[in-house]
Amino acid sequence: MKRIRIFDTTLRDGEQSPGATLAPEQKIIIARQLAKLGVDIIEPGFAISSPGDFAAVQQISRELNNVEIVGFARAMKIDIDAAVRATADAAKRRLHLFISSSDIQMDFQLKKSREQVLQIAREMVAYGKQFVNEIEFSPMDASRAGREFVIEMVEAVIAEGATIINLPDTLGYAMPDEYEEMFRSVRKQARGGDKVIYSAHCHNDLGLAVANSLAAIRGGATQIEVTVNGIGERAGNCSLEELVMAIETRKSAIGAETGIVMSEIYETSRMVSRAMNFPIAFNKPIVGRNAFQHESGIHQDGLLKNRNTYEIMDPEAMGIPRSMIVLGKHSGRHAIKHRLNEFGISLSDDQLADVYTRFIAKADELKLVPDNELIRLASESTDTQHDPFTLVDLTVLAGTNKSRIASVTIRERDSQEESTFTGMGTGPLEAVIHCIQQAIPTAGAFEDLELHSLSTGEDARGEAIVSIVHNNQRYRGTAIHNDIILAAAQAYVGACNQQILSGQSAVKKHEAI
After folding, report:
1. Distance in angstroms (rounded) separating the CA atoms of residues 313 and 102
2. Model confidence pTM above 0.90
3. Which residue, of 113, 252, 304, 431, is most buried by count of CB atoms within 10 Å of its CB?
4. Where does the UniProt annotation place the signal sequence (predicted)?
């Protein structure tokens, strides 16, 4: 298997995405996670761009000894000097220099001739070579440049000491066959081209970044430049998780492998999404909410019998919580029965038929039926309260200059007693959560909240999804309401109920054994 080195530029090219700016301390935290993920190379920023970026690159260089650190620079002495200083303490480092190679960029952006650009490339690679052994050179916009000129530029920088040649598809313009052929021709025709490492840097403007990166591997590239969640300018860069899992899933066909620790993929994705305030699309491959969820009754039935019927990857191997069954109007009785059994709720055939009838009506209303709503439907059909705790009432007092105060009334299933708790917080949700945690002392730690608008206008309904963690297990509650604070509270109680019911079900199964 050919070993593909993963070059992560989330903290440099990814951060250039509008609105994705990171504070230096956020960059350092993400860099640590990238090292834990197993990336080979990290490009932590653009040292010349700001004192904050310089400080982040410097700290990451000093702290991470098991990855190679890249100093990014335009083909200018001032950039190179800053990159060299920022990465001076790195155990392993390289310079990454770039300059435009396409006529349109040279004519209108640089306003320089081909000869002038070639001379700058030669001089700056030679200048950088004084400080570091490894120099990566990128003829920017190579996929739209004249092939002969790209080859001439590559020959020139190799002669001056460049050791890694990156052929970027800067505008996401290339087709896979074109991109593969470019690597083959440059490797073959450029003098010294067979003595250097080749890298690919693909943007996703036409949705081809992963396909083009795989094409580059076929063409001889052994390094691929990626970002977590495919973040980056315009439509983004080649997605780390998509590329890695394509290689892993089709390893024998591609003939390559990476050193990525798959179990860290999901946590890395979530960390970057939160830090950059960039939500992940529901249908995003690998890490999207729907990537391993199935509503179709046919698919659900197959999955419950054998996961491989409708999944080509194991989400849990990537650290993704197992929640493959999503209940909606296309779901069948088998999936509903299975989900209720997970919470220790057994139904007779007549009761299941009644739950299914209620379920279909609710699915038409809500589109997706969350677990807490399904448990409520089962309670109605069996005339038994299955939820350990029920949110009876909620009141929140909020203002501009005061702490938010909340009051929550909770009913406990076994005793049927109702208790009221009060709490405070800097925000209304925090105040509500403090109340619920008093009512449910065994509640898991509040981990995450997602809010989604399901309609428009003043009466829009919001969907709240709350994740909690208890004993290293993750539980999710979902609720829909016009009042998003109430929806979040119901979702939190629902997640806590799932935690308790799952624990009770596990105990019963153990006792049965």
Report:
1. 40
2. no
3. 431
4. none
Q: Looking at the DSSP assignment, which residues form a beta bridge with residue 450? A: 465
Buried b (16+ CB within 10 A) or exposed e, 233-249: beebbbbbbbbbbbbbe
Residue 34 sits at the vertex; the CA angle it makes with 21 and 96, to the nearest 5 degrees, is 70
Q: How far apart are CA 60 and CA 27, in angstroms?
A: 8
* Together in a domain, 336 and 410: no
End-to-end CA distance of the chain: 45
281 domain-assigned:
no
Q: Per-residue pLDDT tens for 38-71?
A: 999 999 999 999 999 999 999 999 999 999 999 9
Which residues are CB-contacts of 188 (< 8 A; sequence separation ≥ 6)?
194
Could you give the CA distance from residue 340 to residue 377 in angstroms, rounded to a whole number?
11
Q: Tell me which residue range forms the domain holding 322.
A: 297-382
Say if residue 377 is in the same domain as residue 400: no
- Are residues 414 and 339 part of one domain? no
Q: What is the rounded CA–CA span in Å between residue 466 and residue 447?
A: 8
- Asked if the structure places residue 282 within a domain, the reply is no
Residue at which a domain ends, from 365, 382, 399: 382
Q: Which residues contact 107 (CB under 8 A, 6 or more apart)?
A: none
Q: Around Cβ 460, how many Cβ atoms within 10 Å?
A: 11
**399 and 374 within one domain:** no
Task: Please write the tens of the pLDDT for every residue from 159-199.
Answer: 999 999 999 999 999 999 999 999 999 999 999 999 999 99
Looking at the structure, do residues 171 and 189 belong to the same domain, yes or no? yes
Single-letter code of the amino acid located at 143: S
Q: Is residue 292 part of a domain?
A: no
Residues 336 and 413 in one domain: no
